[in-house]
Design goal:
By secondary structure, the chain is an alpha/beta fold. The protein contains 7 helices and 9 strands.
Length: 195
């Protein structure tokens, strides 16, 4: 997940632009798959918005982000354990019932996407569920010191062919909910660990 320096340097602006974004529709689809009190890894926790939400809902939450500023923000806001590391460095073994990777895997270069998804599969307990999202498109690009891997339904399914540990449960598109970003489209997916 590249772009750590960007998020450290622009922490306050990023927090302000995302903290109050209404992702309730995404929460609802994810929570349909969860059991009360289950453990969730907030992968790419950013402002801590989602860690706080899930914690308040009674889930056991751990958070991960490569940015020291985002880790500090999440600790302060949500009070959950936070791991400061890149997604491609995580080495959890069947520790979580669910992984929430909202707008974070898009910073993983295309050539590492399958590896990170395999690491997510390994982090999940048997039958565990993962929500993930990418900007909709077909480019692999750099912008403002951050890497972006955009996916469509076709490229997502191409990617999933290299991750037999996970099975697609749902794929859908949404519009960006941040202020002034309504023209941007996102690809969302729910995938389940296969044992």
């Amino acid at each position: 997940m590249s772009g750590t320096n960007y998020y450290d340097e622009h922490a306050q602006a990023f927090i302000e632009s995302t903290l109050n974004a209404d992702v309730s529709g995404l929460y609802a689809r994810f929570e349909e798959k969860l059991t009360p009190g289950c453990s969730i890894l907030d992968l790419g926790c950013g402002s801590g918005r989602d860690s706080l939400y899930f914690s308040r809902r009674g889930y056991t939450v751990g958070a991960l982000d490569p940015s020291p500023a985002m880790c500090a923000q999440t600790k302060a806001l949500a009070g959950v354990p936070v791991y400061e590391m890149q997604a491609e460095e995580m080495d959890f073994d069947r520790q979580f019932d669910a992984v929430w990777a909202c707008a974070s895997l898009l910073h993983v270069p295309w050539e590492l996407q399958a590896e990170v998804l395999r690491r997510i599969a390994r982090a999940l307990k048997e039958g565990g569920i993962c929500y993930c999202s990418w900007k909709y498109g077909e480019s692999d690009r750099e912008k403002d010191g951050r890497h972006f891997t955009d996916l469509t339904e076709d490229s997502f399914r191409q990617l999933m062919q290299n991750v037999p540990e996970l099975r697609e449960e749902a794929v859908w598109t949404t519009q960006d909910v941040r202020k002034g970003r309504g023209g941007e489209k996102w690809l969302n997916a729910l995938v389940r660990r296969v044992d």
